[in-house]
Amino acid sequence: MRLVFAGTPEPAVVALQKLLDSHHEVVAVITRPDARRGRGRTLHPSPVKALAEEHGIEVLTPSTLKPGTEDGEALRTRLAELKPEALPVVAYGNLITPDLLDIAPHGWVNLHFSLLPAWRGAAPVQAAIAHGDDITGASTFRIDEGLDTGVVFGTLTEAIRPTDTADDLLTRLAYSGAELLVATMDGLERGDLVGQPQQGEPTYAHKITTEDARITWSSPAFNVDRHIRAHTPGPGAWTELEGQRVKIGPATPVSLEEVRTAGAEVDTIAPGEIVVTKKAVFVGTSTEPVRLGQLQPPGKKMMNAADWARGLAGGSADKSVSEASKGVFQ
């Protein structure tokens, strides 16, 4: 089929490459405009744009798709000239207005990283991990005027592993989902694939803010573990120590007995309390404690938690940081 692909970040690159490797013809790509990044605030193309340009594919970068705007009208004119049969979409990041939905015979077909109607919205992978799901997946569906409410063409399932971060899970789904998207295009081309209405009670995964990523140490260890992994690498789970923000890498729930075995003489560890042994850092929750792997103090790179704690304690690794610096994560 003749396709125009819409996508922006790295996970969308995998799907675009799979489509380029298929027998379908990608005649153009729609992606977000170049964005300023880094210390120098220089303009960088989206990952999808970079791949498209490598393959000599036309790139369209409207800032908005709204009718009546210069960018929106230019896009409509160009799509009418390109005459796509379908527009596959992966994490494009711009609202597709109702008047564009039927611009191609098969419409806009979105690859969404959940088992719809579970986790409709902007952050389905993060939501699945944070809420303790054991299974998630990906769905292809036709975009309509609702929020991820269109008919579903295909699904796949993916187990959430005990140590999965959002990046780990999204990477696997990007590859398996790319295969699903190509299979969906194949089925639409053959004419034997019919979309099915979504079944079940929907749940929603709103766009994540930095504030959402703050750790609540008074939660059970299971939730703390899931929360940290769900927000890794971005925006990054964080907490505060003496008014300064500290980013926390994935942590492992452990028993109090393991803390004692590691060398700490403790009967309990209060939520947020930091306990340090020679080789480990533990933090209390409302249930069992968690052992920290890495963390990032203000203005520094990610580092081993035990190295950080020794610095706070003036080089000592034999007492709790709270004794040395009154350190309790808030």
From TrEMBL:
(6S)-5,6,7,8-tetrahydrofolate binds at residues 114-117. The keyword Transferase applies. GO terms for cellular component: cytosol. Its EC number is 2.1.2.9. It catalyses: L-methionyl-tRNA(fMet) + (6R)-10-formyltetrahydrofolate = N-formyl-L-methionyl-tRNA(fMet) + (6S)-5,6,7,8-tetrahydrofolate + H(+). GO terms for molecular function: methionyl-tRNA formyltransferase activity. Belongs to the Fmt family. This is Methionyl-tRNA formyltransferase. The gene is fmt.
